[in-house]
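Retro notes, structure queue

What went well: the backlog is down to a handful. What didn't: a couple of records were mislabeled last round, so from now on we paste the full input next to the output in the thread. Example, using Cell cycle protein GpsB from Furfurilactobacillus rossiae DSM 15814:
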Amino acid sequence: MFMQEINFTTQDILQKEFKEKRMGTAYDPTDVDSFLDLVIKDYEMFNREISQLRAENEQLSGKVDDLTRQVNARQSVQSNVETSTSQANNSVTNMDILKRLSNLERHVFGSQLDNGANNQKGQDTFSAGSQSGWND
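Corresponding output:
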């Protein structure tokens, strides 16, 4: 579309030769005027095209800015979700570790812990009994 409406290239303008109307070096004013009219039309068309492209560029830049903001917002939300998920997974993992440690302690030290607790209860009972006068 753009290139089909252009009447001249820069080379055409540079190589344009005007006819001499009379003897001497003067050019035919109507020939020069018609050529300049075509050049002016080209420049007007260039200016319209430039204005249209600038407006389109501004519109597309606005869309890019909007999409960039949307992407950044989604990345922020996704990052927050990942952080929350990671923290939840860490707390579950920590809880699992504590449960496993407790079970392991019961398994390894269970008999010693039970004996220690029973011995302590027996000593408490004995102390309470001797104070109440049972041994008297």
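Agreed that this is the format going forward. Reviewer comment attached to the example: Helices lie at 10-15, 29-132.
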